[in-house]
Amino acid sequence: MMAAVTHDARSPSVSSMPDDIERIKQELLERYESGAPIDIAAWTARFPVYRDELLDYWIWLSGTPRLSEIDKAEMTDPDDRVAEEAIRQACLAVSFGPRWLDEPVDSDTAVEEGLGAELARLRATPYRVEGNASRAFRKAVVYAWIVKELGPRREKVTRLAAQKVAYVLERALNLGLFIEHQQKPLGPYDHKARYRDAEPIAARSGWICVKDASLEAGQVTAQFAHYVQRYIRSETLARRLVECLARLTDEELETWATVSWVGRALVSAGEAVTVDSVRAFLAQSSEWRAKLRRRGFRPEVIAATLARLSRLHLLGD
Amino acid sequence: MNVNRPPESAAEIASLPAPGTTEREAYVRAHADRFTPETLVFLLREALGSGNTALFERCAIALAGRVGPGGNWVGGHCEAMVWSMARSFGFRNDPETLQDFRQQCHMGMWRAIHAGVAEKPFWEARFGLALKHSCIDEGRMLVRRLKELEWADERAELPEDAVGEGEDRPGLDAQVWDRIVEQDLRAAVRRLPPRQARAAFLTWIEGRPVGSDDPRSVKNLMGVTEQAVYALLRKAKVTLAADPELRKYLEDR
């Protein structure tokens, strides 16, 4: 006797594996083409990590003609040269290599979009801290690592820069470390990191040297490198983000961290993150109202910051 | 690399003369227009591996089609799909967007073929689906690129009082709403900012309940509160009312 079929035709059957989203979407496409009913809720429930991507793909797939419905007689205008030109390029790529077919792109935009997507994927994966070290110690390690990474890329590493980069890094990687920032006049600020944990511990351990308001990298040992691997989730991604942040001035870092904070607050409240809503939020904050008179918080600067934070998936959308 | 080829393609490949022989190349040249697209992708990659540009071009023309002796477009396995998807996505109303989309679809296909079977086996297993999948990706990227600035501007331009309930909000009224052809609505929803698009699609096109505890409700599918869904829907209506492709419904009133 055959076993009862319990599989719901509207549900996915592929296994859930990291980086499998392309295969999952292909199965969704095949299921759609078969004409079987599809409940996208079953798919997002099965693959919650890819919820937004699956929903977005489904929005585009749903309602499209199936292969069997496509009018084969629908042909291009013979004067149209798109297909011919594409063939020509593909033939040239036989000699010149596949890079010949790469699109010329705005490198910064493409790099940020790619990094943003990878950060979002990393955040979506479960994270468990390795080892038994206290949060204070782990903060010190990551803080010192930030100083070490920023050092060669900036004339000097101010405390403000380290604080703001730590804040953005926390938003990007969900480290569970820099979570006590408060609204202070120069943006999100972690008082404890300055006086109680990250900075004092890193200085005592010799990982950083404090010179007034500037920080310099200290002695980096193999043990320190081992700690970093444990506490930073993905050193490669973190470094790529820090490389991006290192190009910003202190004033820009203040804008980024502040707008990121406001964006997060607006998203949590179910509100749109707009130039107007960011400025309205700032106007209502006694700590941050004065920023509205500053160059770094003009509407066009906030708009540009929102666009970049959005590309990096740091606005919660 | 073990590819699950369609039987017809597997048979075509099995019947080819031995690899690397002049007989094989002659046979391919003579029969390319009759091969399935999966077989053509296999042969294109083979020609790529041996650096045989002439044979690559012969198979490429068989795959994409060409202008025939009568001046009309003949053969190929791509154009009908690309045009059909362009229609579905609403790209055919704007010549520049249509041109960009077609170009991206073709180039996306060639990039995938050049990437090789290990990286992109689907193209040799289910060519039609792989091309459709690629068209969807290219359409999404195109809209994102075209709308990125507008989405940022749209955030700024959205009047916050539009979030409130009220008859005079600048959205689409019920009569206009009812007249919108579903295909136009789907295309317009795809042009919305992502979160508005999700809320609008699940609510207005799929007809899901917004706030129920059912796991299939919009709020649960999106992982947000009921209030957030309604806020997104209100903003989506405002955005849709400004969509050039939906204005015809407003002007017909």
What low-confidence regions of chain A span 5 or more consecutive residues with pLDDT below 50? Answer: 1-9, 14-19
Distance between the termini of chain B: 59 Å
User: What oligomeric arrangement do these chains adopt?
Assistant: heterodimer
Outline of chain A: elongated
Helical content of chain B stands at 55-70%
Number of helix segments of chain A? 14
Number of strands of chain B: 2
Give an overview of the whole structure.
The complex is a heterodimer of chains A (317) and B (253). Chain A has 317 residues and is mostly helical. Among the domains of chain A are: 21-69; 109-249, no CATH class. Chain A has helices at residues 21-33, 40-46, 51-61, 82-96, 107-124, 135-150, 159-173, 191-195, 198-204, 222-231, 235-246, 250-268, 275-284, 299-311; strands at 157-158, 182-184, 187-189, 208-211, 214-217. In chain A, the strands form 2 sheets. A 3-stranded antiparallel β-sheet of chain A has the order 1-5-4. In chain A, helix 12 (250-268) crosses helix 13 (275-284). Chain A is elongated, with a radius of gyration of 25 Å. Chain A starts with 20 loop residues before the first helix and ends in a 6-residue tail after the last helix. Chain B is an all-alpha fold. In chain B, 65% of the residues lie in helices and 2% in strands. Chain B has 14 helices and 2 strands. Chain B is elongated. At the A-B interface, helix 1, helix 2, helix 3, helix 4 and helix 13 of A face helix 4, strand 1, strand 2, helix 5 and helix 6 of B.
